[in-house]
């Protein structure tokens, strides 16, 4: 379902639009790799499409996010993917696809490259 190479089209953090550095989010089955100027990151995904919104736990195995788990929600429309997660000390899964001022939530919009 999520397999492919995803490139960010836009993002917001804490209710504000933020720039995204050149990044590629590569998903193959239950594995992911993020290639960016800040360093590569690899890990595993646990996807749950039985809940609404769909949930995914993203656990870093190597790179800057090694040992961290992000609890995110996602939705897809064709070759577009929205991924929303929180970056607090104890991340919680967001309830919706928006961020508010003062929150520690990030919403990234991706387009499938391949």
Could you characterize the architecture of this molecule?
Helix content is 0%, strand content 58%. It is mostly beta strands and 114 residues long. Strand 7 (69-77) and strand 8 (80-86) form a beta hairpin.
Write the layout of secondary structure elements.
Elements: E1 4-13, E2 16-18, E3 23-28, E4 31-36, E5 41-48, E6 54-62, E7 69-77, E8 80-86, E9 105-112
Antiparallel strand pairs: 1-2, 1-3, 1-9, 3-4, 4-5, 5-6, 6-7, 7-8, 8-9
The strand count comes to 9
Percent range for β-strand residues: over 45%
| H-E string | EEEEEEEEE
Low-confidence stretches: none
Q: Any idea what the radius of gyration is?
A: 13 Å
| Average pLDDT over all residues | 94
Q: Based on helices, strands and strand pairing, what is the structural class?
A: mainly beta
- Strand order of the biggest β-sheet: 1-3-4-5-6-7-8-9
For the largest beta-sheet, the strand count, sense and barrel status come to: 8 strands, antiparallel, barrel
**Count, helices:** 0
Gross geometry: globular
* End-to-end Cα distance: 13 Å
Give helix % range.
under 10%
Summary keywords:
114 residues; mainly beta; 8-stranded antiparallel beta barrel
Summary, kept brief:
By secondary structure, this protein is an all-beta fold.
